[in-house]
Amino acid sequence: MKKFWLSTLALCTGLTLAACGGGENEESNADNNAGDGSWQPEQSIEFVAPSGAGGGWDTTARMAAEGFEEQNIMDEGIGVVNKEGGGGAVGWAYIAGKAENPHHLFVASPPLLLIPLNGQSEYGYEDFTPIANMISDYGAFAVREDAPWDDLNELFDDMKDNPDNITVIGESSPGSMDHIQFIKIAKEAGVDPQSVKYVSAQDGSTMTNLLNGNADVYSTGVTETVEQVRAGEIKVLGVTAEERLEGEVVEDFPTAVEQGIDATFINWRGFFGPPGMTDAQIAYYEEKFQELNDSAHWEDTREKYAWNELYMDSEEYAEFLKEEEKTMQELLDDVNMQEE
């Protein structure tokens, strides 16, 4: 079983400022710390969740901000703001407008690859500065407790025979995460990706639509299913993890792999900065996020939200994202969704 893991800033003096070009981009060039290349923030920091309150981006941003404060990892205050819209595109445009200002970071996950690839945003991961990935989460496919399917293979067999009769619902837009994670698993099971009837409910009504019978299958994150499973209203047919997860309730969720479907989907989630950050600024944040990752607070947070540990520094993250983008493009091609 896999366990759920879950330097003072020296400001330029008047003479130095003149040598630096009259103070141009003072805020963003604050990395000149005593000439040793180190950097520290000179003002409070903003974490942006490119979504509304309560979702995975928002929760990750708020729990990280709380951890930095409780563990005394950073002296500066951290504020979390929500910039929702466009499946993340509104928040990304906001951060793009903060170029070279290292006091604004945002949380991201696979939609940062998917949304630009399907033409819904002009900004992609290459337009920003990867800082650190912090966790991995997994998808879950849930149905009503009285649904006729007891495992994924029964569901997929029906989808092969009668695809028009089964509606899959998710909170993300078509071609984004909830849709694509389902497509990846269903395709491996032999379902024609273009036959999947997917609808998007970005207004928070996904669970209501499932329970009311307006949809048959809910593609979401593992955490979002726990309370309704406890209440006996839904059952989880499968999750996209590599191995069975540990923890109350989720330990009962079978993986697609153990059902003979050799496919997984990782919902990685981490932090990015605006374009134009310096090496010293990146190094500062890498050190702080590594410290947070290793803290008791973050271990408890991972356990609370059924997240796994998946820390990557900036360089590792950038390489990972290149490979992930290739995979996401292939999946979008499967459903005939790509940038025109």
**CATH superfamily caption of the largest domain:** Bordetella uptake gene, domain 1
Termini separation: 43 Å
What amount of the residues lies in strands? 15-25%
Order of helices and strands: HEHEHEHEHEHEHEHEEHHEH
Give the biggest sheet: 10 strands, mixed
Instruction: Please bin the fraction of helical residues.
Output: 25-40%
CATH level 3 topology of the largest domain: D-Maltodextrin-Binding Protein, domain 2
Oligomer: single chain
Pfam family, one: TctC
InterPro entries: BUG, Bug_dom1
Protein name: Putative tricarboxylic transport membrane protein
Signal peptide: 1-18
What does this entry look like structurally?
The protein is of the alpha/beta class and 340 residues long. 34% of the residues lie in helices and 19% in strands. Strands 1, 2, 3, 4, 5, 6, 7, 8, 9 and 10 form a ten-stranded mixed sheet that branches. α6 links the parallel β5 and β6 (197-200). The longest helix has 21 residues, at 314-334. It is globular and about 60 Å long. It comes from Alteribacillus persepolensis.
